[in-house]
Design goal:
single chain; 221 residues; mainly alpha; 2 strands
Length: 221
Amino acid sequence: MASQEAPRNRKERRAQAKQNQTSADIPLARPKQEAPKGKTLLEIADERQILQRSKNTGSPSVVTTQINPDGSITEVSDPSDPTSTPYLDIFLYTSSLIILHFTLTLLVHHQYATDRPSFFPLFVSSTVFSPAPWLILLLVGILHPRASHPSMQVIFASMAIVAGTWLVKASNDDPYMAVMRKAPALGTLWVWAVVELRWEVALGCLIVTGAWGWWKGYSAW
């Protein structure tokens, strides 16, 4: 029998070793039951699916992206969607603004009223029988769910500038009775508009209001 020709390169050497290998040469062992140290195939697939989606539709949001137990990804409803109404946020915003309106009403009565106001009658008159809380509830219900939209940011910025400058003018030029009527509503509207804005836009609105007051010659002291 002729001797077997020696392999001339690595490819032939590997093919010859594979032909000569028997089942006894394959080591047998039980697979380890330990948890994987690296990423699993499902996690890698999820990452690739998220990256592919980010290329097509932008960066995925942790608020709107949900990973199911089987590894698939579903898109949940966007909280900023106009069709979804955050009732809890509306309730909290409205309650806080009504309390702020009552606090400002109490402060102006202490500042300008001739007689010391009674707490409970003033609270009832400024919350139950005043149109301001109902107007606040209506505005918050309409505008707050869409506050992050650029058009809503323009509306809130305009509202902050108008309410702020009007409050500064009324506090300096109007008589005491007019200040007592206007200041709580204008102050509440101003604070709400500033809170809804992005911080850089809110800062710009405050600067505009302060610059307008300085230009008109108003002083804080």
